[in-house]
Amino acid sequence: MSTRDVNLTEGDLLKPLLTLSIPIVLSQLMQVGYNLADTFWVGRVGENAVSALSFSWPLVFLMISIGGGFTVAGTVLVAQNKGAGNHDRVDHVAGQTIAFVTLLSIFFSAVGYLLAPVMLPLIGTTPGTEVHNLAVEYTRTIFLGVYFMFGFFIFQALLRGWGDTRTPMFLMAFGVALNVIIDPFLILGFNNNPLFGVLGLGALQSQLFAATGFTGFGVQGAAIATVFSRGLGALAGFFLLFSGRVGIHLSPRDLVLKAETVRKIVKIGAPTSVEQSTRALGVTALTALVAFAGAKTVGVDTSAAVAAFGIGIRLNSLVFLPAIGLQQGIETVVGQNLGADKPDRAERGVHLGAGLITGALVFVSAGAYFFAEPIFSVFIPGEPNVIAIGVDFLRIVAPTYIFLGIFRVVSGGFRGSGSTRTAMIFTLLSLWVFRIPPAYLLVEYGGMGVSGVWWAIALSSVISAVIAYAWFLRGTWKDNVVDSPRMAAAADD
Fold first, then answer.
1. CA Rg, the chain, in Å?
2. Domain segments of the chain: what residues?
3. 66, 407, 445, 489 - which has most CB atoms within 10 Å?
4. Cα 89 from chain centre
5. Measured between alpha carbons, how far is 303 from 295 in angstroms, rounded to an integer?
6. What is the pLDDT of residues 358-378, one digit of tens each?
7. Name one Pfam family in it (predicted).
8. Pairwise CA distance, residues 306 & 314, whole Å
9. Pick from 160, 16, 71, 81: nearest CA to 338
């Protein structure tokens, strides 16, 4: 039996919530390192290789968003059944999630591989160019191994529902370390690989190149490294699940799909898939709006506006790592306590999470506001136009970080209860009602230029948090227990 899962249904809530959330934040940081390693070594290949990676990422991210939504169903079902003490049902829903999402990933693998040459030009590649060919090569390799990537996501989600986030963190660390080690060799091979020079092994590189003639796989090498390292992590995770060493005890019969359980997975997971994929589309739409606003703003270069927005979004993603950790931790807290028939404790967990993220982000907001110029200068030195636009972005958006953090935590509460449609609706409202239309109106009719987009982002964060929290306080989500003990006893008999 695992000793890494935390007790979320009894005693103090603060310590177990932090114990659950901090490893998630660290795993997210390692994911950033994962991506940076790929970008760094691909950058040694050339500009076209980096462009190919950039063009491929939206398709890969869309696929991850859709599949990741269904893994959330595994988190919710495992958490609520564990809280209810239905350990046999925990094993069942875990096996069902693995089987269903694996079948889904095989479908994505085939479709993505076949359609990659068609979908990439829709994003902006030109067929026949080197960038297009490299992007197709990278994307197809990722799609061929997508079930390995999904396998690791499933393991993370199931263990999170059980209350163990440290084991997935250790496997993530293993995967990142392996990826960092093999990236330079698979991408650059034994010819002009700067790693050998840094290590003082130039002679060894010459000998290896003479013996093998291996010059690396280029961009495709990054994809191979990602699939291989994630694949080993997924296999290790499944071994732990089937061995019972992490608390969940899977058997082959748990993988035989049952229609009732699959319907629950789809009911819970589909809204989250829609939510995550539309969030990615929302960033694309905002980028187009920023470009539109830049063209209409006197004294502002369009490319400078888009560059500032891109850096601002990346800064935001780093800022909200704690919010993501608390959001996913809250999913488990709410799920387990609703399963244990302790709705008031589940609600208290969300209030606690909102308080924690407020306390953390108030300092982050202040730092981003007062040090906006030096922060942006680090990322793009020597570009005063981009820095000026970026400073404007931070000083308008940063004061609303607290609201966006609260919105994330409350959304986690909705998901943990199984109310994934509610979380989806609020995300859609935030993007497509409170943010993008006002941004267009402020640019087109308000004459505010790119600042109009920044104000719309800030406004939507405040409105979304206030409305979502007000809806949360109604308490209707407390009735949305997807697997009560009574239901579990009757299910699948």
1. 23
2. 1-257, 271-492
3. 407
4. 27
5. 9
6. 999 999 999 999 999 998 887
7. MatE
8. 12
9. 81
